Amino acid sequence: MKIGCFALIEPFTTLEHQFSLIRGMGFDYADVTDSHDGASLGSEFGFAATASLDGHPSHVRKMAEDHQLTLSAVCAHANLLDPTSPATYGTTQIIKAVKLAHFLGIKQVITTEGEPHTAFGRALTHEQRLFVITEKLQEPIRWAKELDIELLLEPHGQVTDDLDATQELLDRLGEPDTVGLNLDTGNCWLGGGDPLEYTRRFADRIRHVHWKDMPGSMEGQRGKVFGCGMATIALGEGVVEVEKIARQLVAGGFDGPTTLEIAGEEAVKASADALRQWSGSD
After folding, report:
1. Distance, CA of 112 to CA of 153 (rounded, Å)
2. Considering the entire predicted model, what is its pTM?
3. CA–CA distance, 253 with 184 (Å, rounded to integer)
4. Which partner from 56, 59, 145, 215 sits 20 to 30 angstroms from 37, CA to CA?
5. Model confidence over 44-73: pLDDT tens digits?
């Protein structure tokens, strides 16, 4: 099991600074965490850790090489339930993320449906949600298949946090060699799912893991909140069965990349130590 780090360690700093911090903590792997079309004022003036989907890949590649990091995934978390809009991160951006991953030599792009923000999105029935997500992912899947990229779905919404609904979605999308899963332990638990059962049920489709533990104080929000960006506690300090999940993954033969989505240097280092112990990883 490879252990990497979310490239959002310190707020209001550049992507290159995030890479420097990750290397300084002793990690070999990182995700391209945040991305956007075109230009970004925050990135231009040094207070946003984001990469342009329209930029030349050599820019990101050089930063990673300078800090001796291997990039394990491009994150392309989308909003697939609200109406299509030029201002909404969706199908077009996922396709660009697939192309960027290809040119960077990265094999995985991680996406999700997200939580809707409009009355239209919130009013969708279960069947409509499945149809909309399936439709919006058709072209990204074609591009991923063409470029030999794994397009991974992460628990981060009403469909992907539900194990039965996730199975329905996988069945509709097909392409098991191209479409896989990124288990986010904290998101799955927060959305009302069982991440340990997820590990057992989808053992043959999980190809990346985002590690988060969640405090017991968030129990009341389960099934009401779909996804959170970062955990504020170290692995093993919360109520998610992260040790059992890690051991189950290893027992099932998982040896792919994983990413710590945890805020604070101490919590990140403690989590890495715990995960290495549980998984037997270097």
Report:
1. 5
2. 0.95
3. 18
4. 145
5. 999 999 999 999 999 999 999 999 999 999
Task: Return the bridge partners of 31, or none.
Answer: 73
Contacts of 88 (CB under 8 A, 6+ apart): 79, 82
258-277 b/e (C-beta count within 10 Å ≥ 16 → b): bbbbbbbeebbbbbbebbee
The pLDDT value given to residue 282: 55
Placement of tokens 């990204």 in the chain: 140
- Copy the structure tokens of residue 87: 């201002």
User: What is the C-alpha to C-alpha distance for residues 147 and 134, in angstroms, rounded to an integer?
Assistant: 20
- Give the domains, in start order, of the chain with CATH numbers: 2-279 (3.20.20.150)
pLDDT digits (tens, 9 = 90+) for 87-102: 999 999 999 999 999 9
